[in-house]
Amino acid sequence: MDYALHARCSRWCAAAAVAGAILLAAAPAAVAQVTPAAGYTPPDDTPSIKVGALIFADYTFQSQPTSTDAAGNVISPSSFNVSRAYINITGSISHLVAFRITPDVTRESGAGSSLNGSLTYRLKYAFAQINLDDWLPKGSGIRIGIQQTPLIDFTEGIYRYRFQGTTFEEREGYMSSSDAGVSFHSVLPNNYGDFHVGYYFGESYSKAEANNEKGLMARLSFRPIPRNPLLKGWRVTGFVTQDHYMQNAERNRYVLQTTFEHPFINVGVDYLKTSDKASSALTSGVDLNPTLKGTGIAVWATPKKVYANGSSIEALIRYDHMKPGGTAGAASITSPDGLNARIIGGVAYWFPKQGGVAAALLFDVENVTFSNWTPVKPTSRKFFVHTLISF
């Protein structure tokens, strides 16, 4: 069997495995005959709908590198920004079927567009969810549509400083937080963890489909000691993406992550490996396109002091280190030895939580250095005031 046929068979087998897992999970729904016990309370199937919002706003001052204005004056750029403004519409048709629709703000940058420079809305999430709690462990279900990807959404549930900036893998451009596809999520027994597997579009929610390639994503998170009062917050996570830019041009990501949650501190460590082949085109019958290998590590901690009224003061400490093997069209293809190092430090005040409303104020600094790059990239240093509103 030639490579192309083997690769195609592998992708279809992966898709069949996902579909098979989903069908096996849903199969009991078609055959189960439940006789309600005495005193049985049927689930509430009243349709419902809720509207919420999520706002990230900041003031940014850039001390390095400096810039020049239209008159040629050397300046330190500064700006007020709204980086995220979700309108969350969630609801249920019955206890078996739920949905979510979420538009998000983005800056229009299309050349020649009458909206160039304006903040416009685009669709971030739009999916239907089939809940399988009647037959599988609570939290099991199938999602179809534009939805969260398995790793980013999981990580943001522990690292709650997305309003400072994206997580390591997304910040480096190797993953997206949302994509179109079909996925299945369930939990392990006795609180040992959960898993999430899906077959996705592969180009993220913000791009159009380029070809016939799709991506398989899978995450397994495991709690080694779920009943220990101290160590129950420790989880070990493995994640893999098997995808292609085009036929015979791989786009793979592998992540090993460990996290620890405690009332006084959350900690996380991510180790990332990437594999990118920009093209499968041959030149005079010879493949001159290298497979680019990237490696990186991120370490973060958020120690906190919680007060009786529910407010808290927290520190944000984060270090990212990436040796980018490159992605299709990236400058690192000609700079395979380039290194990126990011240091983030800040102090946040989380206001007392009122019902489902959360608010926070973060003062932070971010310093990014670029080593061994051609052309040379200057150090970037920015100071921020970040705000979060969620309800």
Structural commentary:
With about 400 residues, the chain is mainly beta. The protein has a single domain, classed as Porin, CATH 2.40.160. Helix content is about 10%, strand content about 50%. The protein is built from three helices and 19 strands. The strands form two sheets. A 16-stranded antiparallel β-barrel has the order 1-4-5-6-7-8-9-10-11-13-14-15-16-17-18-19. A hairpin with a 2-residue loop joins strand 13 and strand 14. The radius of gyration is 23 Å and the shape is globular.
Tell me the span between the first and last alpha carbons. 55 Å
Strand percentage lies at over 45%
Calculate Rg over CA atoms: 23 Å
Provide the spatial order of strands within the biggest beta sheet: 1-4-5-6-7-8-9-10-11-13-14-15-16-17-18-19
Total beta strand runs: 19
Which term fits the overall shape? globular
**Spans of at least 5 consecutive residues with low confidence:** 1-34, 327-334
Would you tell me the overall average pLDDT?
86
CATH topology: Porin
- The topology string of helices and strands comes to HEEEEEEEHHEEEEEEEEEEEE
Secondary-structure-derived class: mainly beta
Under the CATH scheme, the architecture is Beta Barrel
Domain unit count: 1
